[in-house]
Amino acid sequence: MKNTFSITHYRVYKNGTAVIKVSANDFKPVLACHFKRGLPAESFLDADGHGIFSYSLPPDGQMFYGYCTRARAMEKAKAGALAYISQMIREVERGIERLRQYRLDHYEDLNTELLDANIRRLEREMHIK
């Protein structure tokens, strides 16, 4: 039996808590990509015939960090999750402040002008049913 050398690292997705073991020896098939003269066929050409490539980051849910040890990955997963929870709490607190300010700004309209009794009275005056 052959002795195989395995290189592993641990992956933690952004705002996630799962620690995923990834082996460098786990080769997975890649989608076929067609090349033309060493360049991907999906490239675009500018007016001079030079290739234009667009690069972009993956969606936020697919972003991850890699760590050499499981313990380090677990520490970072916990720290990242706690930071994300704190961020969401701050967003809620800002939302509550905006709600309070809206309520203060429109208090008089909501409690005097826009009462159902006033609306029904206006409907009767305008003969709308």
Describe this protein with a few key phrases.
two-stranded antiparallel sheet; three-stranded antiparallel sheet; 129 residues; elongated; 7 strands; alpha+beta; 42% helix; 17% strand
Question: Can you walk me through this structure?
Answer:
- The protein is an alpha+beta fold and 129 residues long.
- It has one domain (8-126).
- 42% of the residues lie in helices and 17% in strands.
- It has 3 helices and 7 strands, in the order βββββββααα.
- The protein is elongated and about 95 Å long.
Strand order of the largest sheet: 2-1-7
The overall pLDDT, averaged over residues, is: 81
Write down the secondary-structure element order.
Answer: EEEEEEEHHH
Assess the beta-strand content as a share of residues: 15-25%
Helical residue percent? 40-55%
Helix and strand composition category: alpha+beta
Distance between the termini: 89 Å
Q: Which regions have little confidence, pLDDT < 50, spanning 5+ residues?
A: none
Question: What integer value in Å does the Rg equal?
Answer: 29 Å
Describe the main β-sheet briefly. Answer: 3 strands, antiparallel
Number of strands: 7
The coarse overall form would be elongated
Number of domains: 1
Number of separate helices: 3
